[in-house]
Amino acid sequence: MPVIPSRDLLDSAVASGRAVAAFNVITLEHAEGIVQGAEQAGLPVILQLSENAVRYHGSATAIAHAMGDVAAAAKVDVALHLDHITDIALMRLAPELLFSSVMFDASEQPYNNNIELTQSAVEWGAQHGVWIEAELGEVGGKDGAHAPGVRTDPTEAHRFVERTGVDALAVAVGSSHAMTTRDASLDHDLIGRLRSAVAVPLVLHGSSGVPDDELSRAAAGGMLKINIGTALNIAYSSAIRAFLDGDRAAVDPRAYLRVGRDAIADTVAHYLRVVAGR
Predict the structure, then answer these.
(1) Active-site residue 87, yes or no?
(2) Active site residue: 83, 153, 167, 262, which one?
């Protein structure tokens, strides 16, 4: 199947009243496992590549092309997205790498700087057919929208979207990045007020730390793109660790990477069903 534009997946989500889950890719096994899980669930998915993952690989080219090949071979709709991009040169690689959307992250900048930088990204995106997601950080702060205790103000969110013309907005409603426990409590009243204040899709980052019932409720309440990363790494690492603990003589990486990939797939299928309300 051809790689699907992120905008099309989000438009379909709006029309069907369900959210879309987006999962972060670090290795080829992540990409393969995510698509395997999406096929198990029979649901569309977004593959995300972060600036940190690009830094790990040293270049976006190889991993991005691998993601594109995996997406094109999928039996479900798959979109490609660049996540938490601060490097403008990397953002501008999106079209040639088949990434139809970019989360341009100026959230650690003061509010007015965030607006100015995001406006420029949106203008570039409009010229190149790239959908731009942004994140509204704490006004005047340096820790971004998902620092502990930060919440996005609906009035500020409305003004930010109006001034920047951004296509989607990541908001702070109680989740945090890189959580390894699932005990985050979301502010569902705030989600409702943000949904009323903002005319573009809302995005939930840090969803690995959010319990299933909270995620389901958030998706039903207006969060249209649900980002998940750490949960995949926990499943991947745990499965590989258990395999190697059980077979100390194992040296063929295909054996243990396969179980890691399958663990990613099972985790993805679970989250997709939760987000879709199944």
Answers:
(1) no
(2) 83
